[in-house]
Automatic annotation (TrEMBL):
Name recorded for this polypeptide: Ornithine cyclodeaminase/mu-crystallin family protein
Cross-referenced InterPro entries: NAD(P)-bd_dom_sf, ODC_Mu_crystall, ODC_N
Length: 175
């Protein structure tokens, strides 16, 4: 059976799990995937550019699953009272071609971006002895980088929680 995950389902899942835990689990999943980077069949993204924006289609697969994400970027939509970025995607079984998930991915994309930022900061921290975070500089040492990463993740999670409070407005603006 193909499952469908809409923005209501996504926001309920995130609320039930909690943004910090959700972002933390995304960080762990991204880390695991980057560690097996060579196992993925990666294709260059396909892009359709217009005067007002871009529509992109991105796909990736391993030996078991195929996934794609459609995402747009239309800055002019803000002037139209519409969202500037929207995304959806699908996950399919490679052996059968059977779709196992269709999902609205706009919120997930935002949280994935936060998780990627946390992961990048964690991996890049040893290269930079002093990193500025909002409102205060701090030093990262090998023995403190996990705590600093957790603090940064918590800060990003707070931003995401504030964004999720706007979900009712987001849902009411369907066009």
């Amino acid at each position: 059976m193909t499952r469908f995950l809409d923005v209501h389902d996504t926001s309920r899942l995130i609320a039930r799990v909690g943004v910090p835990r959700f972002v933390g689990e995304l960080v762990d999943a991204l880390r695991a995937d980057y560690l097996r980077w060579n196992d993925f069949d990666k294709s260059p993204r396909v892009a359709c550019h217009s005067h007002d924006g871009v529509i992109e289609l991105m796909s990736v697969a391993d030996s078991k699953l195929f996934a794609f994400k459609y995402v747009n970027g239309h800055p002019v939509n803000a002037d139209r009272g519409m969202h500037t970025v929207m995304a959806f995607g699908a996950l399919a079984d490679v052996d059968t071609g059977y779709p196992v998930l269709l999902a609205e991915l706009t919120l997930i994309t935002a949280l994935r971006t936060a998780a990627t930022s946390v992961l990048a900061r964690h991996w890049l921290a040893p290269l930079f002895p002093r990193i500025a975070r909002p409102a205060a500089p701090y030093y990262l040492m090998p023995h403190t980088s996990r705590a600093a990463t957790d603090a940064f993740a918590a800060w990003l999670a707070g931003l995401c929680e504030r964004a999720l409070r706007d979900v009712p407005e987001f849902l009411s603006r369907r066009t």
